[in-house]
Design goal:
It contains 17 helices and 17 strands. The chain has helices at 3-36, 57-63, 67-70, 82-96, 104-112, 158-207, 215-245, 258-275, 295-311, 344-348, 370-380, 413-416, 440-450, 464-474, 490-499, 517-526, 538-555, and strands at 42-47, 52-55, 117-124, 130-141, 147-156, 253-257, 279-281, 290-294, 318-325, 330-337, 384-390, 394-402, 431-436, 456-461, 478-481, 508-512, 530-533. The radius of gyration is 38 Å and the shape is elongated.
Length: 572
């Protein structure tokens, strides 16, 4: 074989791998060069002392320096905000419990210990202008693991910072709008309830007055009350929906027994069912099922479903409530009616606000808000709500909730119950109630209610400051306090009364048109003994009087006798 052939033959096996290696090296070099010469981000490399050795085109573009102006001349700390660098040194000293000298060493400290660090800082351009940047710093080491320099890769952070500023601005505007909406809802609730208080309050007085109204008068009063309570229901539903949509509705979740809630709902809807001869059946529970929900809001949901099942049912129809265990840890409560059912088209519109699905002409009152509110409430409590319906056969509305193994806290009533002595019927002195209210109609209503109680005398004041003055002078057994008062709010007046030893013991009951849950919670947290909302429910009002006066009798200090030199402090 020719020598040339042998040489060529023996070298072919090595030529091909070497060519691939060279090609790979060229490709790697091209990639490295593309990275180093990129204008999209800055690459700065230093030696072990922190002096810049490499300054790529991206760094030149961002900072306005030519590489020749900085290489072997300055450190990165010279183009950073010095106060930020010093602050970072202090932070690192605390974080690592090590003393760090401010400067580039502070920025490279963690990197020198093998910790890649990413931080935000301000770059300073050659012309003195500044811009925010995000920088990653890594220690560069040789084959012996000795540090030979540091690599800083940075990007312009201006756009992100501007976005953050805009986001904070938008959040501030949204928060301000939500606050304004909450204030508006609270104010609207008060303004709508105040005239309703007079309408419903005096109608209730007329209905139970002496002599009793004639049959014709009774029919008129019943229509006034029916319209008034319906209007109140409408106000409540609109405000509830508005609170939910604005994210301002707060829920108080606790373990709740489904059996107890459904039993309470049964009691509440029995009268309505009886009027339409509807037979309503509820499940009998073999074992207790508890769900973590807001008890009041869950009752609101069930009452809405039950009321609809009765209202839109046929006369003499049926409503069946059932509970079904679904997937593990979930329970479904179903409310099935024997009504006319819903078509596919109506089902698609079911949870739209103010959409009554053509029931406007049925003669049944409604707002088209209840189901929407129920859906939002169920979802806020971590549940789901749905419906199955067949035209001509009826509908099944269901609510599915998660079961909980928690149990409600049980109060030992034997230890905590207050023993109330029987009140004296003969020879007992008059109990004094002070009512602080600036609205003449509201004051007149309470005066008429108190007039039915010969054991109570009523004092009044038309503003908070006068109310505090009268309370100090007379030391009444209890105080009824409006919240929205001229000059000084009812909450401010309550605070003053609580801080005065002479009046601190007097139970103060709020009687207000501010009926949004947040307002009620705020009032109770401020220290009101009870919180009644307008319009006044006469039975509830009278019961609260009795409860509060019994409490006051126990709490009144014996060393603080009632002044008897004040005959009448009514301001009206």
């Amino acid at each position: 074989m020719p020598i040339q052939s042998v040489i060529g033959h023996t070298s072919d096996a090595h030529v091909i791998p070497e060519a691939r290696r060279q090609k790979a090296l060229l490709k790697m070099g091209a990639l490295q060069n593309a990275i180093l010469t990129s204008a999209d981000f800055s690459i700065i490399a230093t030696d072990e002392t922190g002096i810049i050795q490499l300054f790529n085109p991206g760094a030149e573009r961002m900072l306005g320096y030519a590489a020749a102006e900085v290489v072997n001349k300055i450190s990165p700390s010279d183009i950073h905000d010095s106060e930020e660098v010093a602050a970072r040194a202090r932070a690192l000293s605390l974080e690592l419990a090590t003393s760090i000298i401010p400067g580039f060493d502070a920025l490279a400290f963690k990197a020198s210990r093998g910790i890649e660090d990413v931080y935000e800082l301000t770059f300073i351009r050659k012309d003195g202008s500044r811009f925010p940047a995000v920088v990653t710093i890594t220690a560069l080491r040789d084959d012996y693991d000795d540090i030979i320099g540091y690599l800083l890769i940075g990007g312009d952070n201006t756009v992100r910072k501007q976005a953050e500023v805009e986001l904070h601005r938008a959040m501030a505007i949204a928060e301000k709008a939500n606050l304004a909406k909450s204030v508006f809802l609270s104010s609207m609730s008060h303004e709508l309830r105040t005239p309703l208080n007079a309408i419903l309050g005096f109608a209730q007085l007329m209905q139970s007055g002496s002599p009793l109204p004639t049959s014709a008068q009774q029919r008129s009063i019943e229509q006034i009350l029916k319209a008034g309570w319906y209007l109140l229901e409408l106000i409540n539903e609109v405000l509830d929906l508005a609170l939910i949509e604005s994210g301002k509705l707060s829920l108080s979740t606790e373990p709740v027994s489904l059996a107890e809630v459904l039993q309470e709902c049964k009691t509440m809807i029995e009268g309505q069912a009886s009027q339409r001869r509807i037979i309503v059946s509820f499940p009998v529970f073999d074992i207790a099922h508890f769900v973590s929900v807001d008890r009041t809001r869950l009752k609101q949901v069930f009452i809405n479903l039950l009321t609809n099942a009765i209202k839109y049912n046929c006369i003499g129809g049926t409503v069946v409530v059932a509970c079904v265990l679904k997937t593990p840890g979930r329970i479904r409560v179903c409310v099935e009616d024997s009504g006319e059912g819903l078509s596919e088209d109506k089902l698609a519109q079911l949870f739209q606000p103010f959409n009554r699905l053509g029931q406007e002409q049925s003669g049944q009152e409604g707002t088209g808000i209840g189901l929407v509110t129920a859906k939002r409430l169920v979802e806020l409590m971590g549940g789901t709500i749905g419906v199955e319906s067949t035209v001509g056969k009826g509908s099944v509305f269901w609510v599915e909730l998660s079961l909980t193994t928690e149990r409600p806290h049980v109060v030992d009533t034997a230890k905590s119950a207050t023993i109330v002595p029987a009140s004296k019927q003969n020879g007992e002195h008059l109990r004094t109630v002070l009512y602080v209210e600036d609205n003449p109609a509201n004051l007149m209503l309470v005066e008429d209610l108190i007039a039915r109680r010969p054991d109570i005398r009523l004092l009044s004041a038309t503003d908070g400051a006068r109310g505090v003055e009268v309370a100090r002078a007379t030391v009444p057994d209890m105080i009824l306090m409006d919240i929205n008062l001229p000059g000084m709010s009812g909450i401010q007046a309550l605070k003053i009364l609580r801080e005065d030893a002479a009046t601190a013991h007097i139970p103060v009951v709020a009687l207000s048109g501010n009926a949004i849950p947040h307002d009620i919670k705020r009032g109770l947290e401020a220290g009101f003994f009870r919180y009644l909302t307008k319009p006044i429910n006469v039975a509830e009002f009278m019961n609260t009087l009795d409860t509060t006066l019994k409490f006051a009798k126990q709490e009144r200090p014996g060393a603080n006798p009632r002044p008897n030199n004040v005959e009448n402090t009514n301001d009206t």
